[in-house]
Amino acid sequence: MSTQYTVNSYLLDRLKELGLRHIFGVPGDFAFPLLNCIEKNQDISWVGTCNELNAAYAADGYARIQGIAAFVVTAGVGELSASCGVGGAYAERVPVVAIAGHPNIQALNNVQFTHHSLHGDFSAYARIYKELTVAQALLTPENACQEIDRVLEACWLEKLPVYIQLPQDVGSLPAEAPTEKLALSKPVSDPTQLAALLESLLPLLSAASRPAMLIDSPVGSYHLTELVESFANKSGIPFAATFTGKSAFLDETHLQYLGTYQAGMEGAVNQLIESADLLLRLGIQQDETNNGSAAFDLQSPHVVDLQINSAAIAGSNYPNVTLRDVLIQLSEQVPHRQFAFSSQQARTNSVPFEPQHDTPIKQDRLWQRFGHFLQSDDVLVVDLGTCNMATTVPMPARTRVVTQRTWEAIGYTLPAVLGAQLADQSRRHLLVVGDGAFQMTAQELSTILRQGIAPIIFLLHNNHYEVENALQEGGFREMHYNELQSWNYHQLGMVFTQMQKLLGLRVTTESELETALTEAVQAQTEGRCVLIEVMLAANDIPSQLTKTLNLLYHAQK
Questions:
Q1: Are strands 316-319 and 211-215 parallel, antiparallel or unpaired?
Q2: Which pLDDT does position 108 carry in this prediction?
Q3: Is 184 within 8 Å of 19 (Cβ atoms)?
Q4: How far is CA 118 from each of CA 27, 75, 76, 385, rounded to the nearest angstrom?
Q5: What is the SS3 string spanning 507-542?
Q6: Which residue, 335, 242, 332, is CA-closest to 281?
Q7: What is the dihedral of CA 439, 444, 446, 448, to 10 degrees?
Q8: Domain boundary at 313, 333, 353, which?
Q9: Are 394 and 345 a contacting pair, CB within 8 Å?
Q10: Do 243 and 289 meet the contact criterion of CB atoms below 8 Å apart?
Q11: Mean pLDDT of all residues belonging to the chain
């Protein structure tokens, strides 16, 4: 067996340098040389998924926990299947490396007719991926290693997906092992711009009596959460998260954490944010979920917009100023003060949940119980629809939330929990998914069992895309096109040869749910995956979600 060091070896070494221990994907002939190299690698494991879309979703979940991820597919059919997942990673700023095995260089250059091609044209796939990624590379004998470095550095620094087109003959060419590390130094601020920003901002902070911070998901993507909380500790300024900011991994037990802000909604959190005499907006994305009709006036001297690599105060822009540097400087220069505010975030679920014997489960009660079930250090993966209510309960310390708040592809979460748990197997992983979303990507339950990981899956079964019924104009209407074929989800273990690895439970009442939760905790300690099928009535929409959906509907009109 050849031990020659190749371009494929170089690519795997660079991915290992970035912290990867797993690569997801589906085998395909044009990718065989790279897959054979992965097979021999001692440090990176191959995780074969059931289809290419799920490989992209799993990589997305992995990257949100590990910091970066990669998947390998074959040209054309494979990469187009994965493209929806790559689009989601781009929309949500998730660093994923999409690697597509392609025919040899001669076939590509000669537009030679072959399978998986559009009449011999493989360049169309690169053009498609140019719209979905921040950097792209066609590896050639002359540029392979340099291009690998370029796109991987862009992926890491920009927190966006990249695309590598890997001809099968190029991957097998000899290469020199890297002698220097990748250039992953974080961007630094322009000193003049940073000084000018601080000159304007520090007096505003000193004069403010009711300052507040509002935080969005890019804070988590760029690993700035600790700096934000450090600044909060040193300054005493309270902070809240946007609806999408649940992905910023903030400590919701922090004494200065106010809760979740949602534009247009009533409540104490919104009042505190909107009445602040100085609002620091950290990484805020402008959309109907975070701002809607209540968008803040960015020309106001009371609103400071701090993006990842720029800032603005009262219409004055400060380019090339990084949020990292701003937070460091503010932590050093802003003195601690005591501000009058009342945190609206419940610190604990202090009132015990008393199950009502033989009472059918309703969503409002389900989420009350779910809040008690969460533990510190959990990773909570949440799909869309009524499942979103799982993110509204008080989160214990160091809980990490993985969800798609912008792209909103239903079915994302089952493969995402596969990726997330492979990235960090020291934490307990919980998945909340609806029956419609589960049917989209159900095959990946097989891969979860094959990999021997053990999430607890809460599957909400009501035979509908229920949230779509709730989004109808004029209010809730049950539409036939939102109906689903019913499955016996708790019996899916019978399908798999690893049936002993899955504990399937069906619950219809509050007392049955209580028993199932006890069994789930025990089964997970034994390394078994648990699927709890929660039977819910059609038309059962959580009261809080009804208000949210009405808000979003009016914002989109």
A1: unpaired
A2: 72
A3: no
A4: 20, 11, 8, 37
A5: ECEHHHHHHHHHHHHHHHHCCCEEEEEEECCCCCCC
A6: 242
A7: -130
A8: 333
A9: yes
A10: yes
A11: 90
Q: Which are the contacts of 3, defined by CB distance < 8 A and separation ≥ 6?
A: none
Cα 318 to the chain's mean position, in Å?
29
Is residue 1 predicted with pLDDT exceeding 50?
A: no
Distances (CA, A) of 47 to 38, 85, 374, 413: 10, 17, 28, 17
Strand order in the sheet with 502-507: 400-402, 379-382, 429-434, 456-461, 529-535, 502-507
Find the CATH number of the domain harbouring 161: 3.40.50.970
CA dist list (Å): 199 to 129, 202, 316? 42, 6, 12
Q: Answer whether 287's CB lies under 8 Å from 277's CB.
A: no
Tens-digit pLDDT profile for residues 439-466: 999 999 999 999 999 999 999 999 866 6
What are the pLDDT digits (tens) for 263-291? 767 778 888 998 999 999 999 987 665 55
The answer to whether position 159 is within a domain reads: yes
Residue 437 tokens, joined: 């979303």
Residue 355 lies in a domain: no
Q: Are residues 317 and 374 in the same domain?
A: no
Q: Is the pTM of this model over 0.90?
A: yes
Judge if 42 and 143 occupy the same domain: yes
Task: Give the pLDDT band (50/70/90) at residue 475.
Answer: low
Domain that holds residue 78: 7-171
Residue 396: CA atoms inside 13 Å, Cβ hemisphere, count? 14
